[in-house]
Amino acid sequence: PPPPPPPHIVIIPTPGMGHLIPLAEFARRLTHLHHDNISITFTTLSSSSNKAEQTILSSLPPSITSLTLPPPSLSDLPSDLKIESLISLSLSRSLPSLRNVISSLPNVSAIVVDLFGTDAFDVAEEFNIPKYIFFPSTAMTLSLFKHLLDLDRSVSCEYRDLPDPVRLPGCVPLRGSDLLDPVQDRTNDAYKWVLHHTKRYAVADGIFLNSFEDLEPGPIRALTEPGSKPTVYPIGPLVRTGGSEDSTGCLEWLDRQPSGSVLFVCFGSGGTLSLDQLTELAVGLEMSGQRFLWVVKSPSKVSNSSFFSAATSDDPMGFLPEGFVERTKGRGMMVPSWAPQSQVLAHTSTGGFVSHCGWNSTLESVVYGVPLIVWPLYAEQKMNAVNLIEGAKIAIRPTAGEDGVVRREEVSRIVKALMEGEEGMGVRSRVKELQERAKKALSEGGSSCKALSEVALKLRQNNNNHNNNSVA
Ligand code: UDP
Questions:
Q1: Nearest alpha-carbon partner for 12 in 84, 68, 51
Q2: Which family does the record assign (predicted)?
Q3: Cα-flanking dihedrals φ and ψ of residue 257, to 5°?
Q4: Is 181 a known active-site residue?
Q5: Which residue of 245, 353, 360, 382 sits with most ligand 1 atoms within 8 Å of its CB, as the best mutation to test the pocket?
Q6: Ligand 1 center to residue 361 CA distance, Å?
Q7: Which helix (H) or strand (E) holds 265?
Q8: How far apart are CA 291 and CA 332, in angstroms?
Q9: Cβ(361)–Cβ(350) under 8 Å?
Q10: Distance CA 211, CA 213 (A)
Q11: Which of 46, 245, 266, 336 is the most buried (most CB within 10 A)?
Q12: pLDDT tens digits for 37-69?
């Protein structure tokens, strides 16, 4: 008989740059490793108004087919809906169009969704297709997701009111108040959505985790214990490599700065600060006397106001303190809304990173060996910050005032501590060590490279079974 056609994988990221970027990298890695042996349809749900998203999609290799489902109607939803609910509803309301896509493709041998995409399992089950989760966050968060139903049953108060820390297998103890945002209000729909997804994790055929053993040894060991279901494949760190043209001029600016001298300040695609915090940060950066490159967004009362657009609508520069741009000229560069972050972190002039601790940003920092100042804002970023400070020990933390604002003196102190202090030296040497280990994990024979090969093998086996069943 003729050999079966190569496996065809449908990859479906839910809205958000932090989901799109690593899944695009996963797709690229799979096709790169296994050339003609895997074909991929990359199916997105979201908005063409997001320029950053278009750049990622247009840089997918030609062997990957990319298509966008028609936008579902969301106009009936309340305006204060949390992002996790909005993401989940975007997907669940797109199921009819996803069903059309899957039924029009010959021989789909697996679907891959991300952490909030489990409703696509309905379609996979209808067509009898194996279903996988790509988990774009930490092993610690995955471990929490695996235990959330138990916690939900055993705890009656809000998690932030728990007297004792939450202990997850292999993880550093976590204060209830550090758990991810959407579980902080158990009456909110966002919590119900998270619980709904985590219940469905149990029926996944496997989970691809964007982390690696040396970064999270304890939690990964616990998640990959023999017999654990579903199988977890630690395949990270998969980060955006290469880049597009830089329209901001910041890479050229970096070319002119001394090696390791620039602090990069960026709060991800979604992160926004209050006006008060924006001002304190600006003045603190100025006081520190250090060089900096800052991706500035317009201030907002909510900390994730640019999550779906990756950009803010007003001119963010207009919110900086008067005279700030002139006074920091030559030493500081500001870029509105979006910079080519992975290229910035890869640049030899970059020596530190003030980050909201989104997991992709964190992994990029590890891959390029840049130590961090943690500035968590939303989602699971507080948990990630704990991981970086107490687990990997590659970051330092500023202290906020009682009102939650980090004042200018503290900004200046922590920036100097990272860029020229002893504390900075310690975290810098550890992140360089981890950078080497990340390289090793991804190179031939390394743990993540082996795990990714196992994933590819599994996808091919599914495909053969699927074809045999179809013949029978
Ligand atoms: N990013 C970027 N330029 C920016 C801000 C973010 O290229 O100005 C990229 C960043 O490199 C990372 C992703 O967007 O790959 C953000 O993902 P992360 O998980 O760090 O945070 P999120 O945006 O999901 O909160």
A1: 68
A2: Belongs to the UDP-glycosyltransferase family.
A3: -100, 155
A4: no
A5: 360
A6: 6
A7: strand 262-266
A8: 5
A9: no
A10: 7
A11: 266
A12: 789 999 999 665 678 888 899 999 988 999 999
How far apart CA 228 and CA 222 sit, in angstroms, is: 9
Tell me the two tokens of residue 24.
């695009």
The whole-model pTM stands at 0.96
CA distance 5 to 2: 9
Spatial distance between the Cα atoms of 87 and 181, rounded to a whole number of angstroms: 14
Distance CA 358, CA 368 (A): 16
pLDDT per residue as tens digits for the range 62-73: 889 999 999 899
Tokens of 427: 């975290």
What mean pLDDT is reported for the chain? 93
Ligand 1 center to 71 CA (angstroms)? 23
- Ligand 1 atom showing the smallest separation from residue 240 Cα: 15
Structure-block tokens of residue 293: 């490159």
Q: Which of these ranges, 15-19, 150-154, 156-160, 464-468, has the smallest mean pLDDT?
A: 464-468
Q: Which are the contacts of 377, defined by CB distance < 8 A and separation ≥ 6?
A: 267, 268, 270, 271, 272, 303, 304, 356
User: What would the pLDDT profile of 165-222 be if each residue is shown by its tens digit?
Assistant: 999 999 999 999 999 999 999 999 999 999 999 999 999 999 999 999 999 999 999 9
Give the contacts of 209 (CB within 8 A, at least 6 positions apart).
135, 139, 142, 220, 223, 232, 233, 234, 235, 236
Closest Cα partner for 8 from 107, 98, 126? 107
Q: How many C-beta neighbours within 10 Å does residue 365 have?
A: 29
Whole-number Å distance between alpha carbons of 469 and 472? 5
Residue with tokens 């039924």: 103
Query: Which candidate in 19, 197, 356, 466 is catalytic?
Result: 19
CB-count exposure of residue 18 (10 Å: 0-12, 13-18, 19+): buried
Q: Which atom of ligand 1 is nearest to the CA of 18?
A: 24
Residue 178 known to be catalytic: no
**Among protein residues, the one whose CA lies closest to atom 15 of ligand 1:** 360
Task: State the DSSP H helix or E strand holding residue 335, giving kind and residue range, or none if neither.
Answer: strand 332-336
Q: Check residue 435 and give its pLDDT.
A: 98
Lookup: tokens for 192: 């119900």
Is the Cβ–Cβ distance between 37 and 8 less than 8 Å? no
What number does the ligand 1 atom closest to the CA of 345 have?
Answer: 11
Cα of 226 from ligand 1 centre, angstroms: 34
Amino acid type, 281: L
Q: Which long-range contacts (CB under 8 A, 24 or more apart) does 70-78 make?
A: 70/97, 71/45, 71/46, 71/47, 72/45, 72/97
Between helix 83-92 and helix 189-201 the angle, nearest 10°, is 60
